[in-house]
Design a protein that fits this description.
single chain; 162 residues; mainly alpha; globular
Length: 162
């Protein structure tokens, strides 16, 4: 599936998720929430590492979340990066919409907990992770099957390399 086909399909389970369902289907443009979460988690994890000690813990957890999301959202990396079998099995658990929704929800809750001590920019990652969780939950409730992006290594790209 090419990028243009992914944009036209408007399938919530694709990695081209929408943040809103149907206020006006013609006005809603799809966005790449999962990929944006990766960049945001890594950037905010690094940016907040110079805060008070408890915030450092949350920024490290945000960095770890971003690194996990890289492997979840870009399946090709499991083929080309040397990772352990345990890590591969762990990442492959998140292929269903409900599992991804749960993973994003847990990551979001962790970042929301960072607000207990001090309000930081980690709230942006919490909001975006929650938006991704909602998109995957809607996809699961609508019964839409997960469709991987060919652009990011889904649907046979990894087999073409090997």
């Amino acid at each position: 599936m090419t990028i243009a086909e992914e944009l036209r399909s408007r399938n919530f389970s694709e990695q081209w998720s929408r943040t809103l369902e149907k206020w006006n289907a013609d006005c809603i443009s799809p966005c790449r929430i999962g990929i944006v979460c990766i960049f945001l988690c890594i950037a905010l994890g690094i940016a907040n590492i110079f805060n008070p000690p408890i915030i450092i813990l949350f920024s490290i957890l945000c960095l770890i979340s971003g690194l996990i999301l890289i492997f979840v959202e870009v399946p090709l990396l499991l083929r080309i990066c040397p990772t352990s079998e345990k890590f591969d099995v762990f990442i492959r658990r998140f292929t269903a919409n409900y599992m991804r929704a749960g993973m994003y929800t847990i990551m979001s809750v962790v970042q929301w907990l960072s607000l207990i001590r001090k309000t930081t920019s980690l709230v942006a990652s919490a909001v975006l992770l929650l938006a991704a969780a909602i998109c995957y939950l809607i996809a699961g409730l609508k019964g839409q099957g997960f469709v991987g992006s060919k652009t990011l290594g889904g649907q046979g790209v990894a087999q073409m390399i090997v």
